[in-house]
Design goal:
With 463 residues, this protein is of the alpha/beta class. It is 57% helix and 7% strand. This is DUF4034 domain-containing protein.
Length: 463
């Protein structure tokens, strides 16, 4: 019986990094990750950036995505570096303040903004920052982490190849590559030592996650129907990953039998929604739509009866329904669904779903070549998103709406009016809003969405 846990898999990463850290010859470390392991490796790197990290090195994360243009990329890295030393309204996000208040640096660090925005300047300033670190009793590196960008058309390996021999002795680079689709496979030596170090973690994340879910589902209680329901949801979604001898039909029936046994409105709606998601996952659009319609019917009844479980499930069903319609090229019908979702979200002052519904409405109008209507709805989306906390705005699809507003505004508005939008974005996102948009990887091609974009919308339903 498998006993893997998330903690055990995490410790494997820690041990693997600890061994790599002791090797002082390399300049670029590459985590060669399986698809299922990407998230925990990225989380490991995130933890190592924090005060609770156990590695000897000090980690810095760069979010700018490589676009094939070295000059532009290095300028964006430089600008991102400068933002680390810009006072942040949230104390826990102010890097320089944390370093200074915790006596980790000897004196306040001020980047030399007169330097040219390139990698040489970035490296030299990072070296200067490293020298200012108070505790120099043990040797350590500054490790610069460049997260995986699996869907980027450009390969950052080209940039690594260009700069690797210029990396100073006290700095190192770290990134991630997919084992199934290798892109960062570089060779090279300096002074007889390899410049690259590849880490191949052997993890069992799928099994670990499943074990954790079973724990949360009270795996020792086989009588309680609620516990069996939670476990059966796991079984249903797991069945969708099997290409041969797929058991989704059988497992969905078992799930719905358990919901009948429980007998509550919320369990019935939840069961129908899980069934619709499962059939969507195995690309059975007909059955997915059938169960979506049933879930919508039941959740609508619950809403009318002021049942608290009605609206949260209803809006999830609406997202799924719209995705199915769009996938079947029923664009006008999908548009109506999003408009209804926007209206209901407005009635309930659900600003996040107002933002999302109108953002997607704008995408559809753009595809229909109605730029004016697209622009109107994207402004409505931004206005709703403005009520969200700034931390949510800076990490959500608000960034996509912001780019779309600029792009569409550039087509139908005057430069002065577009500048007003830019000033408003600075207010809503912060002075580094342009860097944020660049990091989000949005561009004009993303305004016309393919089926995969709508599937990403549905990923919210699984959380």
């Amino acid at each position: 019986m498998e006993t893997s846990s998330i903690a055990q898999e995490y410790y494997k990463l820690r041990d693997l990094w600890s061994a790599a850290e002791k090797n002082q010859s390399w300049k670029l470390a590459v985590w060669v990750a399986q698809y299922a392991d990407v998230e925990i490796i990225d989380k490991f790197m995130q933890i190592e950036q924090s005060p609770v990290g156990e590695a000897n090195d000090i980690f810095f994360r760069f979010e700018t995505e490589y676009n094939g243009n070295r000059e532009w990329f290095e300028e964006q890295l430089w600008n991102e570096f400068l933002t680390w030393f810009t006072p942040h309204p949230e104390k826990d996000k102010d890097l320089h303040r944390a370093l200074w208040e915790n006596n980790m640096i000897r004196e306040a660090f001020v980047p030399d903004t007169k330097l040219p925005p390139n990698i040489s300047s970035l490296f030299s300033e990072l070296e200067r920052l490293k020298i200012s670190i108070t505790d120099q009793t043990e040797h350590f590196y500054f490790s610069l982490y460049f997260p995986l960008s699996a869907h980027s058309k450009q390969n950052i390996a080209h940039w690594f190849q260009q700069v690797i021999e210029t990396v100073p002795n006290d700095l190192r680079l770290v990134t991630m590559d997919l084992a199934e689709e290798r892109r960062v496979e570089l060779q090279g030596k300096k002074n007889g030592e390899s410049l690259y170090h590849y880490l191949h973690p052997k993890l069992k994340m799928a099994e670990a996650i499943k074990n954790e879910m079973y724990k949360a589902s009270d795996s020792y209680n086989t009588v309680d129907p609620d516990a069996r329901f939670r476990k059966q949801v796991i079984v249903v979604m797991d069945s969708t990953t099997k290409k041969i001898q797929n058991r989704t039909d059988v497992e969905v029936k078992r799930l719905l039998n358990i919901t009948d046994e429980i007998g509550t409105v919320s369990s019935k709606i939840a069961g129908l929604l899980v069934a619709s998601q499962a059939y969507f996952a195995i690309q059975n659009a007909k059955k997915s739509e059938e169960y979506t319609d049933k879930a919508l019917e039941e959740s609508s009844k619950a809403m009318q009866e002021d049942d608290a479980t009605g609206y949260p499930v209803w809006k999830s069903c609406m997202l799924l329904k719209a995705a199915l319609l769009y996938g079947n090229k029923k664009t006008d019908a999908a548009l109506l669904i999003y408009e209804e979702l926007s209206d209901k979200a407005s009635e309930r002052q659900d600003v996040y779903y107002i933002m999302e519904a109108n953002r997607l409405i704008a995408h559809i109008y753009y595809e229909k070549n109605n730029v004016q209507k697209a622009f109107e709805n994207i402004l409505f989306s931004l206005a709703a998103g403005a009520y969200l906390d700034i931390s949510v705005r800076r990490q959500s699809t608000f960034l996509h709406a912001a780019f779309m507003a600029l792009y569409l505004g550039g087509q139908i508005k005057t430069p002065a009016e577009v500048n007003e939008i830019k000033l408003q974005l600075a207010d809503w996102l912060g002075d580094d809003w342009e860097i944020l948009l660049a990091q989000a990887g949005v561009d004009s091609a993303s305004l016309k969405m393919d089926q995969s974009v709508w599937k990403k919308q549905l990923s919210k339903l699984k959380n």
